[in-house]
Amino acid sequence: MYNTRMKYYSYEDFKIDTLSLIQMVKGSHCEAIIAIARGGLTLSHAMAEGLDIRQVQSIRTELYDKTFKRDMLNIFDTCQLDGVKKVLVVDDIADSGDTLAAVMEYLEKKYEEIEFVSCTLFYKKTSVYEPHFWINEADGWIDFFWERDFLK
């Protein structure tokens, strides 16, 4: 049973919003994409196709267990960004913003010569970090189609 306060986000909504996000980001001329796993993986693949970016990598974070927020964020990075000047960092939502803020800070410190810009499908005004590009303002928990539609 799903919490009725959750907003279900369908594939059709995702497709429409991703096409809009691609248009917003297109002028940034990013050379690579880093997906924040797991939430940013589906969006980053679609963005890579729409922006014709072949260099797609991921960085894994752990902050949430289902809807429970942990005390500490862990970052697992295996990115190879040699020769890249500008990178798009992709996640599904800037909820608390803690994950995106920590990842952006981490990447900017580790790769000082690279410019990083961020994008999400959703942004909450209470987030500590506002992505450079976002489509929807969220006021509750978003139940993404990839979180629901493939469950047994």
Walk me through this protein's architecture.
The structure is a single chain. With 152 residues, the protein is of the alpha/beta class. The chain has a single domain, classed as Rossmann fold. Helices cover 28% and strands 35% of the residues. Strand 3 (56-65) and strand 4 form a beta hairpin. Helix 1 crosses helix 2. The longest helix is centred in the first third of the chain and has 15 residues, at 11-25. The relative contact order is 0.22.
List the helices and strands and how they pair.
Blueprint: E1 7-9, H1 11-25, E2 32-37, H2 41-51, E3 56-65, E4 68-77, E5 86-90, E6 93-94, H3 98-110, E7 115-123, E8 133-137, E9 142-144, H4 145-148
Parallel strand pairs: 1-9, 2-3, 2-5, 5-7, 6-7, 7-8
Antiparallel strand pairs: 3-4
Helix pairs in contact: 1-2
Biggest β-sheet: count, sense, barrel? 7 strands, mixed
Low-confidence stretches: none
The appropriate CATH architecture is: 3-Layer(aba) Sandwich
Element string (H = helix, E = strand): EHEHEEEEHEEEH
Highest CATH level, the class: Alpha Beta
Could you say which overall geometry the principal axes of the C-alpha atoms support?
globular
Percent of residues in beta strands:
25-35%
Oligomer: single chain
Number of strands: 9
Portion in helices: 25-40%
Number of helices: 4
